Amino acid sequence: MARAVTRCGWCGTDPLYVSYHDEEWGVPVHDDQKLFEFLILEGAQAGLSWITILRKREAYRQAFAAFDAER
Q1: For residue 52, which of 14, 15, 48, 60 is within the disulfide window of CB 3.0 to 4.6 Å?
Q2: Catalytic residues, which ones?
Q3: Which of 71, 67, 70, 1 is nearest to 34 (CA)?
């Protein structure tokens, strides 16, 4: 039987937002590379909606060497 999932109203029905809500939002992050990724994405978000950044995430990943701070 499928488990009912309760979601926050802000994530709406966009599959990308739903995936972010269910798998990433509110989950503690301890990995330096993942923290660097969120630092870059949060900085890029200034003045934009988070869904806009999520849609461009792959382009940021390519532009920032997969968020490898050493590179």
Answers
A1: 48
A2: 20, 42, 50
A3: 67
Radius of gyration of the chain measured on its C-alpha atoms: 14
Domain boundaries, the chain: 37-71
Dump pLDDT digits (tens) for 12-71: 999 999 999 999 999 999 999 999 999 999 999 999 999 999 999 999 999 999 999 888
Tokens 């923290």 sit on residue: 35
Residue 54's nearest CA partner among 29, 24, 32, 27 is 24
44 burial type by CB count under 10 A (0-12 exposed, 13-18 middle, 19+ buried): middle
Q: Which residues contact 20 (CB under 8 A, 6 or more apart)?
A: 11, 50, 54
